[in-house]
Amino acid sequence: MLSLHTNAAALSAQNSIGRTQSSLSTSQTRLSTGFRVNSAMDDAAGLQIATRLKAQTSGMAMAMRNTQNGISMLQTAEGALDETTNILVRMKDLATQGADATSTTKDGVALQAEFDALTSELSNIVNNTSFGGQSLLRGTATATGTVGTLTAAIKFQIGASSDETMTVDLATGTELATMHTDLKGGAGGYDDSGVPIAAAGSDITTTTAANGAIDKLQKAIESVGKVRSALGAAANRLDHVYNNLSNISTNTKAATGRIMDTDFAAESSSMTSNQMLLQAGTAMLKQSNSTSSLVMSLLQ
C-alpha cells in the first residue's frame, strides 16, 4: 500500500538498523574490554557461575600462599632442630671422650667447658627460634614469654572453604614435650622456658659421670629426630597440597575464561558482519524514505 502516513518499508529498515546497531555496540564493547560478559544482561547464568569460580580461585590463591608460609614455618623449626642434633652429637662425642680412662682431670675440665657452652646454645636455639615473631619450640610459659606455637595443635587453612584445613599436632603425641624432657636429661642445665640458664650442663668431668651421659644424650638425639620427622612429614604434605591447589586453580581459571573471555576471532567476524549490515540498512532506509515521493507523481 502506497501511503503518506505510514511508510512500512522505512519502519522495517529502522527496526533492522536498531537491532544491528545494538549487536555492533555489543561486539565493540566485548572487543574493547576483552570480556564476553560485561553485565548480567550478556549472560545471566554464565555470570553467576563465573563469579562463583572466580571466588574459588581467589580463595585458592590465598590458600596456596598459606601452604607456602606453613612450609616455611615448619622448615624454620626443622632447621633449628637440625642444628640441635649437631650440638647433641658433639656433646655425645665429648661425653664419650670424657668416659675414657685416658682422659685426665685437666681434659675433663676442658671437655666440661665446651659441654656447658653447648648446653647454653641448646637453650638459646629452642627459646629464640621464631617465625614472624612467634616462638616455635619454647616449652613452658614464664613471665618473660609464652609457650611456642608448636607446643599445641596448629591449624593451617589449605583451601577456599572453611572445611579445608590441616592440623599439625606435636602436642597430643607428646613428641615435643618428650624432646624437652630428654634434652634436660642429657644436658642438665638446659632450659626451655625462655629465661637465662641457671646451671651448667651435666657433669662429664669424671669417667663415670661422662659414661652415664652418653645414653641420655643418645636418647635426646632420638627424640629430636622424632620431632624433625613429624615436621618433615607435615611439610611434605603441605607441598602436595600446594601442587594440588595449583592444578585446581589452573583448571578453574580456564573454565572461568571460557565463560567470561571474548573469542576475538568470532567477535571480530560478528562486528564486521554487523558493520556491513548497518551500512546496507542505512542505504535501504534512504531508499524507503524516497518512496513517499511517488505519491506526488500520482497527483500530477
From TrEMBL:
Pfam family for this entry, one: Flagellin_N
Subcellular location: Secreted; Bacterial flagellum
Secreted keyword on record: yes
Cellular-component GO terms for this entry: bacterial-type flagellum; extracellular region
Domain of life (superkingdom): Bacteria
Main location: secreted
Keywords: Bacterial flagellum, Cell projection, Cilium, Flagellum, Secreted
Domain Flagellin C-terminal: 214-299
Signal peptide (UniProt feature, chain positions): none
Keyword Nucleotide-binding among UniProt keywords: no
Segments forming domain Flagellin N-terminal: 6-142
Its biological purpose: Flagellin is the subunit protein which polymerizes to form the filaments of bacterial flagella.
Family assignment from sequence similarity: Belongs to the bacterial flagellin family.
Protein name: Flagellin
